[in-house]
Amino acid sequence: MIVRSKFMQLIALSALVVIATVIAACSEFIEEEATPALTVAPTATVEAVVEPTEEVVADTPAEVEASAKLVTAEWMVENLDNDDVVVIDLRKEEDYAAGHIPGALRLTPNPVFQEEDANGVAGMLPSADHIASALSDLGIESSDTVVFYDGFSNLWASRALWALDVYGHGDTRLIDGSWNYWSANELESSTETPEVTASSYAFTGEPNLDIIAGWEEVLTSVDDPSKIVCDARSPEEFSGKDVRAAAGGHIPEAQNVNWNRAVDEQGVFLPAAELQEIYDGEGIQGDQVVFTLCQTAVRATHSWFVLQELLGYETVKVYDGSWTEWGNRTDLPITTR
């Protein structure tokens, strides 16, 4: 009876692991979603331009550390007719149809910037050819300045920018505040879909493998104080109360800085001084090698953008496998608190 009891316990435990893995795989994209964007009612024609004034609905984005990769909505207004600037909307099709930045092209981010790898890990960065094919369909050239935005706070936009940076696209940018800021300030919008002539896009720059990491490299942070994991998940996920893999918890010695602490209620990045105070307060220092992670490396790329592009940290790497890989392995250390 004792042998049978232990055998039944093993079967039950194995079933739980399988169920947890399936749940993580099925919900990988859902958990990365941010606050829903404001919806603009559809119109039959392009709306009139509303020039930004001191009486706009939302506050002007606060000054952050100078970064060529972060532009204001006002900069975007000035470059709407710039043929060298391509704007990509990463929101849902119905949101795009209801109103978007004039000239913006729409792209669904999940299948373009994430895929399951050969080891069965979901949410991993696809090949350069895979992404180049999607960019070709939009008529993008390697010389274009590519500006991404999403519904709120640049969560998916940061994943898209990071992916292009890994493979060496020359000029990538985000719009501070994304669509939420744009629509709240009643800036020019359109319901027209631009005509596109497909291109033969190819990455011409050198791949930047210094901004991506695998689990082997991340593991070295456990015993090396010169390296640290910045866990961008919620405190509940970090502590193990919210379990989204076979196991909950976090990597030993990691520090938890929820990604959404870097933006205000409008999705605009906080001033650099406030950002620095947040990360300093959690022990994330600029002289360390910093690995960012979340569940499927979407929130992690947002934190990467803050640390590298807005605060100027020298070495910041996205752990692309993130918790969907680490939490489903049995050979890697995990702790809870």
Q: How would you describe this structure to a colleague?
A:
This protein has 337 residues and is of the alpha/beta class. The chain has two domains: 37-207, Rhodanese-like domain (Oxidized Rhodanese, domain 1); 209-326, Oxidized Rhodanese, domain 1. 32% of the residues lie in helices and 11% in strands. It has twelve helices and ten strands. The chain has helices at 2-26, 73-78, 93-98, 109-113, 128-137, 155-167, 178-184, 215-219, 235-239, 272-281, 299-310, 322-326; strands at 70-71, 85-89, 105-106, 145-149, 171-175, 212-213, 227-231, 255-256, 289-293, 315-319. Strand 4, helix 6 and strand 5 form a beta-alpha-beta unit. Helix 6 (155-167) packs across helix 11 (299-310). The longest helix is centred in the N-terminal third of the chain and has 25 residues, at 2-26. It is globular and about 50 Å long. It starts with a helix and ends in an 11-residue tail after the last helix. Mean pLDDT is 85; it is low at 1-66.
- Radius of gyration based on Cα positions: 21 Å
What is the assembly state of the chains in this entry? single chain
Task: Output mean pLDDT.
Answer: 85
Q: What global shape is seen?
A: globular
- Please report the total strand number as a whole number: 10
Total count of helical runs of at least 4 residues: 12
| Low-pLDDT stretches | 1-66
Describe the strand arrangement of the main beta sheet, using strand numbers: 1-5-4-2-3
Q: What is the percentage of strand-forming residues?
A: 5-15%
The span between the termini is 36 Å
CATH superfamily of the largest domain: Rhodanese-like domain
What is the share of helical residues? 25-40%
CATH class value of the largest domain: Alpha Beta
Summarize the biggest pleated sheet.
5 strands, parallel
CATH architecture descriptor name of the largest domain: 3-Layer(aba) Sandwich
Q: Can you tell me the number of structural domains?
A: 2
| CATH-defined topology of the largest domain | Oxidized Rhodanese, domain 1
Instruction: Kindly name the structural category.
Output: alpha/beta
One letter per element, helices H and strands E, the order comes to: HEHEHEHHEHEHEHEHEHEHEH
